[in-house]
Amino acid sequence: MGGYHDRVGADLTAAAERFALTLASYGLQRMTARVMAALLFSQRESMTAGEIGEQLGVSSGAMSGALKQLTAMGMVERVPAPGSRRDHYSFRDGAWATLMSAQNAALTLMTTAADEGLAIAGDDTPAGRRLTEMRDFYRYMLDRLPALIDEWQRSRRTDGQGRL
């Protein structure tokens, strides 16, 4: 019986490391990506920094910045652990919708940057054409993303797949 659980644990750890590499290739700091993946793929409800560090083969101090960043992003949260004096962390329910909602600020910044560039370059220039496409794309995303997130959250509540 232990063999099955050991194999599943090893397979999950390997999958988490592959996911962390993917996240890092898209710009997330490597340690932050590894900590995020460890919590996401964990069979436990929560883990201490020491437990995450043991799984990743790093010190808990090496992860403090990653845990702070993931907490600030809304992906990870500190959770109570009765009888424990250590902080426990878990991957937050609703984290993906929170992350995408936070992207609205980035979309707004991109739209503003395009508008600023257009005001300087003008519409009928090579830069103006590129900046118009950029502005239009981000406006389109800004118009639709909030409704998609709301729809996602409603579907999770009605089909019983999430705890929002």
Automatic annotation (TrEMBL):
Domain of life of the native organism: Bacteria
Coiled coil spans: none
GO molecular function: DNA binding; DNA-binding transcription factor activity
Protein name: HTH marR-type domain-containing protein
Pfam families per the UniProt record, alphabetical: MarR_2
Entry keyword annotation includes S-adenosyl-L-methionine: no
Keywords for the protein's UniProt record, in alphabetical order: DNA-binding, Transcription, Transcription regulation
Keyword Coiled coil: no
Domain HTH marR-type: 26-86
